[in-house]
Amino acid sequence: MHLVDTTMFYAPEGGGVQRYLTAKHVWLRQYTNVRHTILAPGRANATAGDNIITLRSPSLPLAHGYRFPLRLTHWSKRLVKLAPDLIEAGDPYGLAWAALEAGRQLRTPVIGFYHSDLVSIMGARFGTRAEQATIRYVRHLYRRFDLVIAPSRFVAEKLKRLGIDRVAQQALGVDTEMFHPRRRDPTLRHKLGLAEDTRLLIYAGRFAHEKHLHVLLAAFRRLGRHYHLLLVGGGMRIRPRPNVTVYRYQRCDQELARLLASSDALVHAGPQETFGLVVLEAMASGVPIVGVAAGGIAELVVDRHGVLAPPGDGNAFADAIETLYTKDMATLGSCAREAAQSTYHWDQVMRSLLALYRNRLLPSV
User: Fold this and answer.
1) What CA–CA distance (Å, rounded) separates 213 from 23?
2) Which of 30, 135, 199, 231 has the fewest beta carbons closer than 10 A?
3) 92-136 per-position pLDDT tens digit
4) Radius of gyration (Cα) for the chain, nearest Å?
């Protein structure tokens, strides 16, 4: 079987989609005879490594290294030339349409993986009219796929409410050897210029409106100097604050794993996460979570893993952080690690994904 993944979210500063595709590429090569190709925008037309192909595309300003593919006919022709048995499109933009056109020509099934909740993003940024227009667009696009994959129950139910029927839920996974408690660095507070008794919490991800960083900043403004927030990522500019340190995006997985394992907890106030991969990476690192009771994060985090706060309220989030420190945080971290290992290890996730492909789309393969 030849599987082709195509998405504009495969970039040097890519987030969860890039992690998913990289893990998938490695696992399929190691454990199966499936030929896997990744086709994504890049600085030049090139083939890197084992079946990772880039086509030259212009970069998007302030977009974390993402590039926007033009000449979609050229992309669909390249997909047809690759002659896949199955195509998976990982973004809701031009490459999704190119994948559908290639699938039509090849008579090959095409999957749309709904990694990003475009409807919520557009609504939060531009208001109700934009949200309604996006609903119409998403319905028009995703009804055309042979199957739509949702990474959480939250997303699957939302897609079905939009009238998209061919939906399957498939969680993402985590490398539990890369993200591991043994990567803890006891000198991190010293390197940050903090006292050893400072309560250190971390956020890692894009600095974007929908991540609700203003809620985190409001919470830490109320908590004061004994609590410190380490923000790791890039995007919109964050003004310096006495108890907030900003690190740029970490391309090195080992460095991100070190920062996660060396913090007391991960904090994430985004109410519209389709899954929350960094939450899972923190759990695998043995770190408890303070999140919000909304979106995909609420499906990952239960009482044994951390504390959930109502969305959109900085004071309530500060209360949740204080509550966390009244609990046995070592036990919370241990339970979080156990959940990541037992349910979300990439091996288990990839076997489930491959079974989904074969049972729903390729029964004869």
Assistant:
1) 28
2) 30
3) 999 999 999 999 999 999 999 999 899 988 988 899 999 999 999
4) 21
- State both tokens at 104: 């039509």
Among 109, 112, 86, CA closest to 4: 86
Averaged over 330-335, what is the pLDDT? 97
Vertex 306: Cα angle to 300 and 309 (nearest 5) = 85
pLDDT in tens, 54-63: 999 988 775 6
- Phi and psi for 246 in degrees, rounded to 5? -110, 125
Q: What is the DSSP string of 316-363?
A: HHHHHHHHHTTS-HHHHHHHHHHHHHHH-BHHHHHHHHHHHHHHHT-T
Q: Which two tokens stand for residue 308?
A: 């959930």
Please provide residue 244's backbone torsions phi and psi, each rounded to the nearest 5 degrees.
-135, 130
- Cα 297 from Cα 13, distance rounded (Å): 22
Residue with token string 């970039």: 11
- Whole-number Å distance between alpha carbons of 209 and 220: 18
**Rounded (5°) CA angle 191-193-195:** 110
Q: Are 1 and 86 in contact (CB under 8 A)?
A: yes
Model confidence pTM above 0.85: yes
Are 45 and 13 contacting, i.e. CB atoms less than 8 angstroms apart?
no
DSSP 187: T
State the Cα torsion 346-348-95-156 to the nearest 10°: -120
Residue 294 · residue 274 · CB < 8 Å:
no
- Per DSSP, the three-state class of 261 is helix
- Cβ-contact 267, 284 below 8 angstroms: no
